[in-house]
Structure formats: structure tokens, C-alpha cells
Design brief:
The chain is an alpha/beta fold. It has 14 helices and 21 strands. Strand 19 and strand 20 form a beta hairpin.
């Protein structure tokens, strides 16, 4: 859908439509207040390096992720709809795909997308249904060190009864090195610091942003942002008087920078840390695919030149185990609360994370490491313990799943995901809908249970067989034997994807994005 100019008449119509949609939402979901509570757990940049997903080729310490997975169903082939925080979260929370909304990146104000102006977000739906909806930390997009431009809050304030620290500032101040300084006003601020992971000073010509950083911080009475969020959430579980609760908890780690206590670094001695294999990653890739991740490839050059690859991987692993510890505190609090036997738990990550695969870092690509995410559900009376589902599923599927589990009636806008309830009841139930992940208009990847097909805006293609090639080393797109498979998957590529929604333009000139 293309952005359009809205007339006064159109604006009034839109306001009227929104009011009507909210009335419909109230009618459609009025039975939801009798349904179970919801614990909605978001993790930032968490890939498959947790025990129950087996993505890390060494030993990883994630007892609480594994503990939750043992209680319900873990989806081993779950993927985001966009490998970008803001786009992925906006899509999940509105039920609308980026190719429909035009929200592809972190700068877009999702509510300004014509397709999303009247959208009822997931927490707003539950609030209308009579739940007390409270959230803390990063649910919608925000950043811990930057509170404007690229990291400005994209929260939906009207969706929540209360938010920690506030509806306008969804993330508490985090801990950074002692040399960090806060610049700007309380409403628009940056935390800046000299890089802690300084390496040997090799390749000073490569401009890597300072927040691509890691290291243990000394003990302090000051708490990390995620610890503050979990403290608040534990208080909600024990102190709220609400009959029905929708509790959203956003854990920022393992997003960069990886500053966590020393004890989590100690779990991963450097001589035991594994890094991805080195290979000719360009082999078989068309030019458009080679260009994916090019900006973060400079990060890899700096990391390798300074001998920091293992230390960087250690930082990411330490941040995962820190996040795992926060999850453990939440599960303990839930188990000790009056909500223990009447709560649906859903845990998700917003996108994957690359740690040197194809010599690039972070996300912003359409390969498996960038799109695969953790997704787990626990629903008493629906899921059975230790369930595992290998069907390809999407973060878009969370909204319709929760609606069916709790309300049984859809919200007024069209949801583009597919309910996972049949798979929660039986992880081996049939499913034919693949996952479509989009990165910018015209670049789309279709992930089915066995194959991944990617088409770029210039027509370049990739095709991988995950049964024989789980690391996507061998591009089969040019092999005539796979023509029929490629054609079948290509049917799911969006025919007329929305153009990019114009984003903010107030980024500091001295920053690298």
C-alpha cells in the first residue's frame, strides 16, 4: 500500500472508522475477560544459540529457556517477518506484514503507515477486552542508549493501563561503563562512551560504531535495565488486584552492547568459545545476495583484525545467559503467584543475529541466521510438555493464536498470520503456509519446512535445501532440477509490496548506522 495524502474528510472518516473498530473489538472480545491471563515475553536479537534450539556449536548455559520449553511447545523453525527490530515488532503487534504496511526499517513511525493508522495492536485488543494490560521494557521498538531518531520509542501508549518506566520512555536507563556520559535532554538523549572492547587498535580506518561493544562491568548497587524491568514485573504478578492480566515484559539483552556482570562471562572460557566456520561465503551467490550485510561486513574486518572474534561471541553468550537469568526470575515469580495455573505464556525473539557467518554481524539479511528466532507457547489444557514443532511458522502467527486461545473471535482488522493453536494441540498437525520475511521493498525470502527461497528486487535468487544444507552453503536456484520447487515457493512472494514508509531524518551526522 502506498502512502497517500489525507484530506480533512478522510481524516474524519478515519477517526470514525477507528471508533467503530474499537466498538467491534469490544464486542468481538467481550468474552476474553473470562479467559486465561497472558505473560508476553519479548527478547531482543536472540537467535537460536539457546539449549533447546541447538544453534550454538558448543555448550550454552540457558537452563530457564530450556525449562520453559519443557513445559509447552517450542517451534524449532520459527522466523521473523522482517530482520529489523522496529519492522518485526510492528508487524507482530499489529498482525500486518511489512510488505503490506511499508514498515521495513527502524526509522519508520509505524502508526503513520496508512495500513496501520487504525490498527488495533495486540495489547490494545486485550485492554478493550477487559484485561489489565501492563508492560515494561522493550515491547515496541526502542533502544537503551538512544532515545530519538533511530532509537525513538514506538510504543502504543493507549494500549496500556500502565507501563514501566513510563508509556513515553519504555526502557529504563541501563548500566554502561563508568566513562559513559549522557548527552541531550530527558526526552531526547544519547549515552556515549569510549569503546571497552578496544582490541589492539588494528584497522583504525574502519569506522565501527562504539555501541558494538562488550565486556563485564564491575559490581554496583545500580541495576541493569533488564533487572529493573523484571523487578517491576515480579511486583505486578504479586501485587495486582486485576482479575485478568496481560503482562508484557521486554528483555533487551542479548542486544548490543553486551555489558553484563562478570559471572556470565565466566560461564564461557575463551578457549571453549566456538565461532562460525570460515569458508568462501560468496561462492554461488548472485550480486544482490553478496551485497546483503555489506555495512556490517566492515565490523567483521575490524573484529578479525583485532583478534576479537571469540571475545565478541563470548559477549553475546554472556548476554544470553544474563537474559536467561531474568527469565528464571520471572518464571519463579509466576509459579509463586495466584496466576500460576491460569496463564498462557508466549516467548519470542524479534529477529535472529549473525556472529560472523558470511563475514557479517547483526541482522539485516535474509539468511537463516538473521531470520530464525525462538518461539515458545505454554497453554494449560492445550499444550503438552516438551512439544517440538518443525513446521515453518511466523511471528505474525502470535496475534491470531492468542486471540483464539483467549477470545476465540478475531479483532476487526485483517490479521495476516495463521493461528498456531492446531500445532499447539498437535505439533505434527499438517501446515502448508510458509513464512515470508521481507527486508526493504522487493527483497523477500520464503521459508518452508524444508526449503528457503529468496528473490531480490533485481531478480537475483537463492534456494537452499535445509534437509541437506542447514547452513545454506549451496545455492540451488540455478539448478534445473529444482525449478518446480522454486516456482511453488515463488507464489508466496508479495506481488506488489508497499513502498518504504518515510522515516525520521534527525540522525546525528557523526553516527554510523
Amino acid at each position: 500500500m502506498r502512502p497517500t495524502t489525507i484530506s480533512r474528510r478522510g481524516l474524519l472518516f478515519g477517526m470514525s472508522a477507528m471508533a467503530a473498530m474499537r466498538r467491534l473489538a469490544a464486542q468481538a472480545a467481550k468474552s476474553a475477560a473470562k479467559g486465561p491471563n497472558v505473560l508476553f515475553l519479548a527478547f531482543d536479537d536472540l537467535n537460536d544459540w539457546i539449549g533447546c534450539l541447538g544453534g550454538y556449536p558448543g555448550r550454552v548455559h540457558t537452563p530457564n529457556f530450556d525449562r520453559l520449553a519443557s513445559r509447552g511447545v517450542v517451534f524449532t523453525n520459527a522466523h521473523c517477518s522482517a530482520p529489523v527490530c522496529n519492522a518485526s515488532r510492528a508487524s507482530l503487534l499489529t498482525g500486518v506484514h511489512p510488505a503490506t504496511s511499508g514498515v521495513y526499517d527502524n526509522s519508520a513511525k509505524w502508526r503513520e503507515a496508512p495500513a496501520l493508522r487504525n490498527a488495533v495492536t495486540l495489547p490494545a485488543y486485550f485492554r478493550t477486552a477487559g484485561y489489565r494490560t501492563v508492560g515494561g521494557g522493550k515491547i515496541f521498538h526502542a533502544l537503551s542508549w538512544l532515545n530519538y531518531s533511530y532509537g525513538a520509542s514506538e510504543n502504543d501508549p493507549d494500549a496500556w493501563d500502565d507501563y514501566f518506566p513510563s508509556k513515553q520512555q519504555p526502557m529504563p536507563f541501563d548500566r554502561f561503563p563508568a566513562t559513559a556520559r549522557k548527552l541531550g535532554t530527558d526526552s531526547q538523549w544519547i549515552f556515549d562512551w569510549p569503546r571497552a572492547a578496544a582490541g589492539k587498535g588494528e584497522r583504525p580506518d574502519i569506522k565501527v560504531p562504539y555501541y558494538m561493544d562488550w565486556g563485564p562491568l564491575p559490581p554496583s548497587l545500580d541495576k541493569y535495565a533488564d533487572e529493573q524491568v523484571v523487578d517491576w514485573a515480579v511486583g505486578e504478578l504479586h501485587n495486582t488486584t486485576a482479575n485478568r492480566l496481560f503482562l508484557g515484559v521486554g528483555i533487551f539483552k542479548p542486544h548490543i552492547p553486551w555489558f553484563v556482570p562478570q559471572q556470565y562471562f565466566d560461564l564461557y572460557p575463551l578457549d571453549e568459545v566456538a565461532t562460525p566456520p570460515v569458508r568462501n561465503w560468496r561462492e554461488g551467490l548472485p550480486p544482490a545476495a553478496q551485497a546483503m550485510g555489506e555495512e556490517r561486513r566492515r565490523w567483521h574486518q575490524w573484529i578479525v583484525a583485532n583478534g576479537e572474534w571469540k571475545r565478541a561471541a563470548q559477549g553475546y553468550l554472556a548476554a544470553i545467559s544474563f537474559a536467561d537469568a531474568q527469565l528464571g526470575r520471572l518464571l519463579d515469580a509466576l509459579d509463586a503467584s495466584r496466576f500460576a495455573k491460569d496463564t498462557v505464556i508466549v516467548l519470542w525473539g524479534d529477529n535472529g543475529f549473525q556472529l560472523g557467518e558470511r563475514e557479517t554481524w547483526e541482522k539485516f539479511t535474509l539468511w537463516e541466521e538473521s531470520t530464525r528466532i525462538p518461539l515458545m507457547f505454554v497453554a494449560l489444557g492445550v499444550t503438552k510438555p516438551a512439544g517440538r514443532c518443525s513446521h515453518a511458522v511466523s511471528l505474525l502467527d502470535i496475534y491470531p493464536t492468542l486471540v483464539e486461545l483467549v477470545a476465540g473471535t478475531p479483532p476487526p482488522q485483517k490479521l495476516e498470520g495463521t493461528s498456531l493453536v492446531p500445532l499447539l494441540r498437535n505439533p505434527n498437525a499438517p501446515r502448508t503456509v510458509p513464512v515470508v520475511t521481507s527486508f526493504e521493498p522487493g527483497n523477500h525470502s520464503v521459508r518452508a519446512e524444508r526449503y528457503r527461497y529468496t528473490r531480490y528486487r533485481d531478480g537475483d535468487e537463492e534456494l537452499y535445501d535445509h534437509e541437506t544444507d542447514p547452513h545454506e552453503y549451496h545455492n540451488l536456484a540455478g539448478d534445473p532440477k529444482y525449478r518446480a520447487i522454486k516456482a511453488e515457493l515463488a507464489k508466496w512472494v508479495p506481488k506488489e509490496p508497499a513502498k518504504t514508509l518515510p522515516g525520521r531524518r534527525d540522525r546525528p551526522a557523526q553516527w554510523w548506522w
